[in-house]
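Suppose you are handed a protein chain with no further information: no name, no annotation, nothing but its sequence. What can you learn? This example shows the usual starting point.
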Amino acid sequence: MSKNRILMVFDNGEQRELIKEKIDEEFRDEVSVEEVRSEKALDQLGKKRYDLLIISLHKSPLSSEEQPGLAFLQSVRQQGKEFPAILFLDYVNADTMKELRGIPECKYILEGEDLESTFIRLCTEALGKGEGKVSEQEKRLDVEIFLDLSKGQGLAVFSGVGIIFQWPNVALKIDTEKLDKLKEKSERVEKHDDWLLDLKEIGEELYEHIFVHNPKFFEYFYEKKGEVGGLANIRLRFGVDEKTHPILLEALYARAELSSDYWMLHAPIYRTVKDIPGMQYPLYQDRQTLEGKINCLIIEGKTSGLWKEGDKLGGELEELKHVTTECDKIQECLTANHTKFRIDQIKRIRNEDVPSEKSFKEYLWDELEKDGKENRFWHIVHYAGHSHYDRNTRKAFVFFPGRDPDPVDVDQFAKELRKVSPRFIYLSSCRSSEQDFVYALAACNIPAVVGFRWPIDDPMAEKFTEKFYKHLFERRLLESAFLEARRNMYKEHASNKIWAAPMLIMQLQV
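A reasonable first move is to predict its three-dimensional structure. Written in structure tokens, the prediction is:
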């Protein structure tokens, strides 16, 4: 069996030796590794074909850029050499992300990240891309779509496993006026009795606008769909900003040549917040959570009654009769299957456990502070309770129990949760996928969130939650568990908004 060929371009000898050691431990005789200095690398790349470049440069004779490794890789691409690459970077920002999206088959790792959980995974993914190295069953197509309403243009970025791309990026034509109308229509769906009709109309218009009006993209997409064996092996991710996030992108309703109904019932559709870099992997996408044990924190925010924001009356929260039952079922399932699911620690925060001298919020903040200092990280955080989003003031709250409901700004909630490094947060509450929730959590380096866009019946939320976690621990893949839970709820409750309301957001690395 021929070996995969890796070329390392480093200017740090100590780091180079560490990386070589990790590669040898993981791949042994499966790869051959060569080293070259940056000033000779382009000549070397002209002589041989490599399966993977690994680049870490802090200074480069080719460029005075602040990111010399990125500048070097761009110079490689400009000469027509499109090898898969892993790039070590000191930092990433919006400009860096934009540059990286224009480089096919490039992944990055931040200096100081755990090599076990990040670097080896990226190597494994990259070395599996070559022709003949992946079986037909393993082929997968990933399509990321960006719609820029401010510029009237879009971009589709193709990647995947086991397929080769002639055009990794395809420009899209965007009709800003039509998308603005779709946004307005999306925000009115919940208020209509004929919401299913509205949903289908939005989905059909999205399909027409993105696919039909961009024939080059459609033809290329259709060709790649055939190569991977259909919709079941496609993942679609929308990069959203404040203007595009309100659009019901998940409603995409394809024609018969793709599917005869909603795409979200056949393939994972999820979102990422544009220009906020993914700094760590979501649950079950790195070695630590795939092979290690999982800790789960359950926050039971059962409360009802009038609530105030300062001295101003905010509104009234109805009683959520199923919150305790929902939390009971999650805890019982995790406890009963702790060996099968590799569950280590389970903690549940309830109002009855809070000491009389503290508020629920004070008690929770203290527990998160203590857990963070003791390096007890909660990979899954499940919040069940009320949430509120005011479109006029663009303020978002979750609510904690007390004498009266205690509104907690989502920014503060996210910052406190960051202390325990969640890999996934499930917000079992109404309007918890509104942009303030999503942006606050993404900005605090929380890589995956499930929330709901509309008010949902309490018992329906409980059913969706139960199905989601069942699939999550069996499949160990967030997007697959999310898809299966949606399918189950559609099959059983097609006329209820529960199957259309959930939204999955993941801040993936490029």
